[in-house]
Amino acid sequence: MRLSRYFLPVLKETPAEAQIASHRLMLRAGMIKQASAGIYSWLPLGLKVLRNIERIVNEEQERAGHVPLLMPTLQGADLWRESGRYDAYGEEMLRIKDRQGREMLYGPTNEEMITDIFRSYVSSYKDLPLTLYHIQWKFRDEMRPRFGVMRGREFLMKDGYNFDLDYEAAMVAYDRHMVSYLRTYERMGLQAIPMRADSGPIGGEDTHEFLVLAETGESEVFYDSAILDLKLADRAVDYDDAAQLASIRSEWTTPYARTDETHDEGVFAEVPEERRRTSRGIEVGQIFYFGTKYSEPLGAMVANEKGERVPVHMGSHGIGVSRLLGAIIEASHDDKGIIWPEGVTPFHVGIVNLRQGDAACDAACAEIEAQVAAKGLEPLYDDRDERAGAKFATMDLIGLPWRITVGPRGIAAGKVELTSRRTGESEEMTVEEAVTRLA
Ligand code: ATP
Ligand code: MG
Ligand code: MG
Ligand code: MG
């Protein structure tokens, strides 16, 4: 992509309404534009990162054996009356009437709808286990939408639902979700800690939230610092191996880690003092087991091996896809701008031409562009007729992991400069060497 043809409406001024770094940076980097309170347009750069996050989520879900589908944003009220949640959900639910006077709602979550899909087609244990998921916009009429995409009213969520014959099988699904979530966040360059949480209005017995530590997080968290050393890295995970899944779950859930809702001072006191941490965190996901809470009222039954009809055991599992942009930026930025982890970066490398219109510089930039693309990576070439300082400031703000700078003096010596956004270190080398170094 060439910047002269792109749409990157970078702001010079820091927007006054933004209270936290990620919100400020997303506005300044031209990633989002507020449409109404808590509702955003995704401008091209923001959309690219959102799509990258979705891609990682999809890949990890499919790797775990979960099956994608897509349910609508608008739902009829009737299903929610069957589950008893239409009245119980409260003010966060946006209720709408169509022209026939039928009551509809903009889905805040999809337990009812997925259970209806399940009961329409599945009636035997032989079709289990089954986990269906989608990535779809949700609407929750939050009392205080704030911090940009972090607490929006319209937001993108991955929500998945497992259907299993009994408690034991549903726990395997729980572990599978925990492990696939750990992998998902790691691939985004994030440390998200599973913490024992409270089930809230979705209701349930077993639940963990995944939290990214950040001063600006809305949750208060308490944890044993030993949990920070845990990494899946390139461990081979076999999603059909229930024992391995359980052992990974227990590895992550043994060190103390709880949100304020479930925090217990007495248990926390047993953690060695030097490892006791209190901090704030951003909730980027949550997994729940809730048993037959929806399958019973909605009649989602299957025949078991003895031919008896039993309600399926379910759980639901969510990832805050749009919130993740804010969380990643909170965890990875400096005073110049965003620092994207390689896994989600909108472009892999920025090319800065210091002398636009100079035949040798222009040719070298075009050559770099072609070589980067040939590697399957995406460059953003700043080919505008702008001062070097302005070009560098834009690249620093939008946070691409690498920058290749091309100037007349270097080119005369056959060299360009490769700069790491994270360390700020620059090195002179040939075009080929620079391209080889890119991830
Ligand atoms: P919160 O406690 O922040 O209100 P929640 O517990 O109500 O979130 P869940 O029902 O667990 O949310 O939804 C799954 C995920 O969706 C959350 O972990 C979070 O990452 C994301 N999410 C929830 N509400 C919002 C929102 N208003 N804006 C952006 N993302 C959200
Ligand atoms: Mg909420
Ligand atoms: Mg919550
Ligand atoms: Mg939650």
Automatic annotation (TrEMBL):
Recorded catalytic activity of this chain's protein: tRNA(Pro) + L-proline + ATP = L-prolyl-tRNA(Pro) + AMP + diphosphate
Gene Ontology biological process terms, A to Z: prolyl-tRNA aminoacylation
Gene Ontology CC terms: cytosol
Compartment annotation: Cytoplasm
InterPro entries linked to this entry: aa-tRNA-synt_IIb (IPR002314), aa-tRNA-synth_II (IPR006195), aa-tRNA-synth_II/BPL/LPL (IPR045864), Anticodon-bd (IPR004154), Anticodon-bd_dom_sf (IPR036621), Pro-tRNA-ligase_IIa (IPR002316), Pro-tRNA-synth_IIa_bac-type (IPR004500), Pro-tRNA_synthetase (IPR050062)
Extent of the signal sequence: none
Enzyme Commission number(s): 6.1.1.15
Residues that span the membrane, as ranges: none
MF annotations from Gene Ontology: ATP binding; proline-tRNA ligase activity
Keywords, comma-separated and alphabetical: Aminoacyl-tRNA synthetase, ATP-binding, Cytoplasm, Ligase, Nucleotide-binding, Protein biosynthesis
Function: Catalyzes the attachment of proline to tRNA(Pro) in a two-step reaction: proline is first activated by ATP to form Pro-AMP and then transferred to the acceptor end of tRNA(Pro).
UniProt-recorded name of the protein: Proline--tRNA ligase
Taxonomic lineage of the native organism: Bacteria, Pseudomonadati, Pseudomonadota, Alphaproteobacteria, Rhodobacterales
